[in-house]
Specification:
The structure is a single chain. The protein is α+β, with helices and mostly antiparallel strands. Keywords: Signal.
Length: about 200
């Protein structure tokens, strides 16, 4: 049984080294990336302005990722209290709204990156949009970036204990990415070594 597994595994590794490999990444996986890398504040909030407990603030939360045509759409809920802080209260206007930005996936060496951020839905308030647009078009796409090689190396880290084989990722090159059938499909070449 163990020998059969070793032979199948060795054949898999040889095939993986000889041909391009495809990974399908779900919208939920991209959402988890955003939660882990950006929405780490209290109750999953990201403060664009102010901090938790301050009377005047702007924050985004609850990112939802979906796919539409060749784009990845990120939907966030925002809440703000815009104005001036006076005696521990914010004198101004409070707004709760949703915002959407869409991006196109782009290969960046070993990383899955995003470009061409386009704001698809904004608030009715110019003051709030002044703060939201840089967050939606720059910060959000930057924080979704994933180094695929680092993730695979983490998975292989305990390969000796789990399989009896010490495996290393020696190289990874992402060739293309596209949205297809409800997934982000990443096509890449990789080099693995087994000891």
């Amino acid at each position: 049984m163990k020998l059969r597994f070793a032979l199948v595994f060795a054949a898999f590794l040889l095939a993986m080294q000889a041909h391009a490999t495809e990974i399908k990444i779900s919208a939920q996986a991209l959402e988890r990336t955003l939660h882990q890398q950006l929405f780490t504040g209290p109750d999953g909030k990201y403060f664009i302005k102010g901090k938790d407990g301050q009377p005047c603030f702007v924050y985004a939360r609850d990112p939802k990722v979906s796919f539409k045509d060749d784009r990845i759409v990120i939907h966030v809920s925002t809440k703000s209290r815009l104005g001036s802080s006076v005696f521990g209260n914010c004198i101004g206007v409070g707004l709760t709204t949703d915002a959407d930005v869409s991006v196109i996936p782009e290969a960046e060496g070993e990383s899955i990156g995003f470009r061409d951020a386009r704001v698809d839905n904004l608030a009715a308030s110019r003051e709030l949009n002044f703060l939201l647009v840089p967050f939606l078009t720059k910060k959000l796409p930057q924080q979704m970036k994933i180094n695929a090689a680092d993730l695979i190396r983490q998975l292989l880290k305990n390969s000796l204990q789990q399989t009896g084989y010490e495996m290393h990722l020696d190289g990874l090159k992402i060739h293309s990415m596209q949205v297809s059938n409800g997934n982000l499909v990443v096509d890449f070449d990789s080099e693995l070594s087994v000891k």
